[in-house]
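User: Hey, quick favor. My workstation is busy. Could you predict this chain's structure for me?
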Amino acid sequence: MDVKGAYLNGRLEEEVYMRQPDGYHDGTDKVCRLIKTLYGLKQAGREWNKEFDARIKGLGFERLHADPCAYIRVTDEHIEVITAWVDDLLLFADTAEMMRKLKDEFKEV
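Assistant: No problem, here it is.
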């Protein structure tokens, strides 16, 4: 599963400025103050990971100590596992029904 626009969802904690993007120049030397992260920004990956971690834990998943890019949720007799690599996710569930429910949850987050 690919997370579209993942690096555009992080909120910056520090002030970051950039030149006006190509095609936008208004004839001044003004710069843009960023509020959210952009692809290519050094902070983008970390901010995306913090946002993802908070949201996935909000769904009841726990981060594995052995691998901080893997999360697990055990409910009743079912196990679900999510692994993250940059902005790509692998989803695992022990039944097709649990997989469908997991995908539906992601649509709402």
